[in-house]
Amino acid sequence: MAFTFTNSYLQGVYENVCKKNSHEPEYLQAVGEVLESLQPVVEQRPKLAKCGVIDRIVEPERSLLFRISWVDDQGQVQVNRGYRVQFNTAIGPSKGGLRFHPSVNLSIIKFLGFEQIFKNSLTGLPMGGGKGGADFDPKGKSDNEVMRFCQSFMTELQRHIGPDTDVPAGDIGVGAREIGYLFGQYKRLRNEFTGVLTGKGLTYGGSLARTEATGYGLCYFADEMLKAAGKSFQGQDVVISGSGNVAIYANQKATQLGGRVVAMSDSNGYIYDPNGIDYKVMQEIKEVKRARISTYLEYVPGAKYVEGCRGIWTVPCGIALPCATQNELDLEGAQALVKNGCFAVAEGANMPSTPEAVACFQEHKLLFAPAKASNAGGVATSGLEMSQNSMRLSWTFEEVDEKLHGIMRNIYHNAAKAAEEYGMPGNLVAGANIAGFMKVADAMIWQGVSY
Ligand code: NDP
Ligand code: 2IT
């Protein structure tokens, strides 16, 4: 993957990052993309190089790697690997999700933690960046196995986190069930009832609208981007990859805004339903039954199921919302979208489009919303959950939703403004990276070089 630098300071930092992390392709991809966008900023502000801000920002403050042993339902001992990377705390306690998926490794956790720094800054709330997880696969495990795993995971993690230190949340494979078990174990071990995790259940400190927040926020951001171009969701066919937390609520909001969601997927394949997919059916399949997306045909026999998830980008649509995982939308997928008349792509997942796919969208002048900006609604609402926990009160669904909507509108306008200011109008990739970076860089300079 080629990133080009005209600035010698950035070139040097990137070469060093490549040398030190040569076995971490996802991390190098995330760093390359951000540093490429920062060239005009570094040129204008020599202090950034003088204070070593970029050298420092690409190195996590702290990376934890630990063993998680637990006993399965057959009485066998199982061992997994746990991670927590506290990447940057310049503007607030480390904050970011936990991912439980067999593919989890240090490269993936570092790419996610790095992106989280800029995303959290864009929300305007005081949150630093972090991420964690484990190579544990919740699929096919009983509730008791998941509980024992979560308890073992938290037995180690609890000594490293806290409401003013590092506040984990959900991500792939970590939802309401897992957060509940993790919270219960933290409380038991620390004898503290605090807002140490977000995405909690509503009966024990969770925020209304956190479940919906990432999907809703994605559509609020996309709507603002479409509006600025004189377009909208109204009457558009929408393709959404994934069928998890982000995808389900993106479906609900895109439909409310007048779109018709014609395709969704899981890691095995995708469904096509020209009449529009009802998000409630998907909730039942994925959240209640924890079943495969192919079972949609039992609810809607007229729909079509196709094996293999990558083919979803060949389904014609005006708007595409990749909401599954990193690098799920490659050049071939991007070309298929362009060929079929897609005019807007907004990322719900983290880094779902490969750099080649992003270049293709930019070349064909599609409206493109990068993940750090467009999926920031989840963590923004986590920030609102932290505020409610600190104040010991809860806002209504409408209050939280309205704040989320305002935050997403602001992120769009701040990213668009930064892109314009640095001579790249319409380039929200650069705009989001620059706007997110500025505040963190400033805080790092003010706080001096101590770590
Ligand atoms: P879920 O676990 O709820 O759902 C994940 C979905 O993505 C499932 O449909 C899953 O299919 C699919 N998927 C996962 N891994 C792969 C893979 N390797 N190949 C193909 N499909 C895959 O996770 P979320 O909805 O929470 O997360 C989805 C994305 O959104 C991730 O990139 C996450 O980092 C990002 N995100 C999440 C936020 C949140 O608040 N939850 C906030 C911001 C970003 P299957 O069931 O077959 O595994
Ligand atoms: O990628 C993300 O922003 C998340 N998984 C949500 C993190 C959070 O702390 O709510």
Explain what this protein looks like in three dimensions.
The chain has 451 residues and is of the alpha/beta class. The protein folds into three domains: 1-59 and 427-451, Glutamate Dehydrogenase, Chain A, domain 3 (Orthogonal Bundle), CATH 1.10.285; 62-192, Rossmann fold (3-Layer(aba) Sandwich); 214-365, Rossmann fold (3-Layer(aba) Sandwich), CATH 3.40.50.720. Helix content is 48%, strand content 15%. The protein is built from 18 helices and twelve strands. Strand 6, helix 10 (245-256) and strand 7 form a beta-alpha-beta unit. It binds NADPH dihydro-nicotinamide-adenine-dinucleotide phosphate and (2Z)-2-iminopentanedioic acid. (2Z)-2-iminopentanedioic acid is lined by residues 95-97, 119, 169, 171, 198, 350, 378-379, 382.
Tell the overall outline. globular
Percent helix, as a range, is 40-55%
Task: List segments where confidence is low: pLDDT < 50 over at least 5 consecutive residues.
Answer: none
What's the CATH H-level superfamily name of the largest domain? NAD(P)-binding Rossmann-like Domain
Topology readout:
Blueprint: H1 8-20, H2 25-37, H3 39-44, H4 46-50, H5 53-57, E1 62-71, E2 77-88, E3 94-100, H6 106-122, E4 128-134, H7 143-157, E5 166-169, H8 176-190, H9 210-228, E6 237-241, H10 245-256, E7 260-265, E8 269-272, H11 279-288, H12 296-299, E9 304-307, E10 319-322, H13 331-339, E11 344-346, H14 355-363, E12 367-369, H15 371-374, H16 377-391, H17 397-421, H18 428-447
Bound molecules: NADPH dihydro-nicotinamide-adenine-dinucleotide phosphate and (2Z)-2-iminopentanedioic acid.
NADPH dihydro-nicotinamide-adenine-dinucleotide phosphate binds next to α10.
